[in-house]
# Entry
Amino acid sequence: MFSNTTYINRRQELKKKIGSGIVILPGNSEAAMNYAGNGYAFRQDSSFIYYVGLNMPDLVYLLDIDNDREYLFGDELTIDDVIWMGSLPSLKERAEKAGINTVESSTQLPKYISGALKSKRKIHYLKPYRYRNKLFLSELFGKSPQEISESFSLDMTSAVIAMRLIKSEEELRELADAGRIGYAMHIVAMKMCQPGALERDVAGTIEGLAISAGNGVSFPTILSMNGQTLHNHDHSGTLETGRLMLCDAGAENLNHYASDFTRTTAVGGKYTARQTAIHNIVLSAVNESISMARPGVTYKSVHRNAYRIIFEGLREIGLTCGNTEDALTAGAPALFMPHGLGHAIGLDVHDMENLGETSVGYDETTKRETMFGYRSLRFGKRLEPGHVLTVEPGVYFIPQLIDKWKAEGICKEFINFDRLETYRDFGGIRIEDNIAITEKGARLVYEKRLPITVEEITEVVSV
Ligand code: GLY
Ligand code: MN
# Structure
């Protein structure tokens, strides 16, 4: 947790941005896995972490903007809790860490809210994404869960997005720390990428590293020889010579910031000529995207430029053909990369996706596209200093998608379907780094970049 001035300042800014009414921000509760006493690892709500910083269940922060008062609602531990979990700081002591002076028992909250509702005061809350918080707000406000989901505060949502999107120096240090753990995970994955190794062994080992160095993985690890399946959580394969292992994995550090890297390693470190050629195209797309990213440029245009590099690179090896601009307008590169170039990253790996992906990644001047491929870009708007994003182009050969496009004649003037047949079992290559937008350009979030060229990766695998 940062010093309490960080949280005090953030809440001051939130207050200014929203202007009037009451803000209620419930933290998360424990979530049962197979019964209440056997829960998933506790994960605090990211906006609660951002404004309050406290990593304990069942807390509610309330800000009365009109009367300039704030409260932390919660409950002191009972003797039974202490027997089970040991002694923990009192609620008052925790509130001080967050710079909040008034603590109240959770039993007081309904009274407070019903008073506010009677006086018809505006109460702001974010759209809940956990059923428990939806039901909690439903009971508190006497509205159906459906109404609760629909009547969240747009003002609060846009204020939170605007604030959380711009990372401070202390946040950038945390992101670099998450990157440090991600680095260690990927180096181990590369070293383990040997013929006969089990995917689940590699995935389990690096997830263990994320647990020992931080709060575990920032999302379920994607690790597979079937890299053409974008979110492949199946780790049942045995690594084979001649194939590629796509590893998309990252860590959450102890202060809850995420990293998200992808490297695609040839099993045993031996890239074939075909694999090297595709790898180099994707690598150019990563590096050129980082060079292009700067304040004032839309990420949508960086995505389109990555499509250009991929289309032209594939044209050189005979998989695509025709005029680049026409192909980009027709969406032809989406056959090979049906996902977006990247997303914001911060306290969430897809930062604030719970607040609405389009609300986070687009605005009045930059609208989301509807065309296949382009529409999957999660973050498209104009870049600003302090934005932190992933850059993750890829080239995939998805047999079912190739068959569909071929059968329907989609973009047939730009794709050499005959030649493509010989790539059906290639798999896929993705390369992903995390960048911070600076005043003049973009930089990697961390000091040490993971090995990224075919030569660099081969060297790690061979050691
Ligand atoms: N690295 C997983 C994702 O971006 O969805
Ligand atoms: Mn990602």
Q: What stands out?
A: Residues 260, 343, 390, 392, 432 surround manganese (II) ion (ligand 2) (CB under 6 Å). The chain has a mean pLDDT of 97. The longest helix spans residues 169-192.
